[in-house]
Amino acid sequence: MKTKRIVILGAGESGVGAAKLAQKHGFDVFVSDFGAIADRYKSALQELKISFEEKQHTNELILNATEVIKSPGIPTTAPIVKALVKNNIPVISEIEFAKRYTTAKTICITGSNGKSTTTMLIYHILQNAGVNVGLGGNIGQSFAAQVCEAEYDWYVLEISSFMLDDMYDFKADIAVLLNITPDHLDRYDYKLENYAASKMRIVQNQTDKDFFIYCADDEETLKSLQKTKINAKQYPFSIRKKVEEGAYLEDQTIHINTHLKQPFTMSISELALQGKHNIYNSMASGIVAKVLELRNETIRESMGNFKNIEHRLEFVAKISDVTYINDSKATNVNSTWYALESVGSDVVLIMGGVDKGNDYSMLKDLVRSKVSAIVCMGKDNKRIHEAFEDDVDIIVNTFSAAEAVQVAYHLAKKGNTVLLSPACASFDLFKNYEDRGNQFKAAVKEL
């Protein structure tokens, strides 16, 4: 019998992880990347003697695949993907592929904002409780690489809409949907309902033995729920109203009630993560922990001592009584809204980059009430000027992190906050949002 040929498009973390797993299971594996492959991934492929190509996609080497595993970053409009569809060759995600080879259970977190923080917090709680747990998806080591090399009972996976688009038979044992706000609309024909439908794929294949945790305060989620059949046990969370089963806020205290006997309560002042959006993230994480019947003491301790991820509302320094915060991970408007909502007033806001069809109108009230100046950092800042010229007196253009920090330093007064929260993707001036955040931090340290 002829060996099945698996072709992997994209040689980043997920692609190389998928290549390792496919090789382990006896497939004929080929990796193709339209860009240059990073040295460490190239070395990994060479070590495993997996054939690959870079800076091109060769049709003859790809269109003979039995199945293709596609990097989430490659859009369906890419010529090679169109050719695969035309040739009826199945295209799936790394997560879909990896799940075939593990009996571990999965906790999957999606949403436009708060995914990484919530994923990390759930992982932190489970680790502290002694659960044999892996962390993957959009964060950390690829799911496929871990399935290949490790044996976990549970995985906590951060799942983007792009991953969900290529997932078919995959099932989340516990699915968490934090929110749905406009993001990546360029990949969804600029229609929010298409993006929302993609997010709702998080519940596909769930049965009545599974769990679905969602925000009952999020309008788009509630709209999508009306159009979706949910088989799983549902646990909503809300800071506006009391819920029977799920989580709610009352008297500055989180209350979590699941079908299990012992309810959980914790004052929001004791949470490691502060700010309204983080109450939601903590509630979602707490419900997951209660579903898994972890001890209240462990949950409370973990939610009180968690350290947030780098580049998400990360304190950098206080210089001449001005606070510098790195929120480079805010690659969409809603993330920047959350950031502004959680810091004090008198903000010098550094924003800009690659605009993904952003609608800045939701920021206008917060900008008007909290922002004294905007420092644009990007090649084309026209839309930011147009959006906020009536709300802020000072809008300045800069073309590097160092320049942006210097300008912000001169604009900020004592007691102010300089906040890098771009609301845009980073790849006009930087490799990625981490590079942008690191350059910002380095520039602050130079002051």
What is this structure, in a nutshell?
With 447 residues, the protein is an alpha/beta fold. Helix content is 35%, strand content 22%. The strands form 3 sheets. A 9-stranded mixed beta sheet has the order 7-8-6-9-10-11-12-13-14, covered by helices on one side.
Beta content comes to 15-25%
Number of strands: 20
Terminal CA distance: 66 Å
Question: How would you sum up the major sheet?
Answer: 9 strands, mixed
Query: How many helical elements?
Result: 17
Helix content: 25-40%
As a whole number of angstroms, the C-alpha radius of gyration is 22 Å
Mean pLDDT: 93
Low-confidence stretches are: none
Which secondary-structure class do the elements indicate? alpha/beta
What strand order characterises the main sheet? 7-8-6-9-10-11-12-13-14
User: What is the molecular shape?
Assistant: globular
Protein name: UDP-N-acetylmuramoylalanine--D-glutamate ligase
Organism: Pedobacter planticolens
GO molecular function, one term: ATP binding
Keywords: ATP-binding, Cell cycle, Cell division, Cell shape, Cell wall biogenesis/degradation, Cytoplasm, Ligase, Nucleotide-binding, Peptidoglycan synthesis
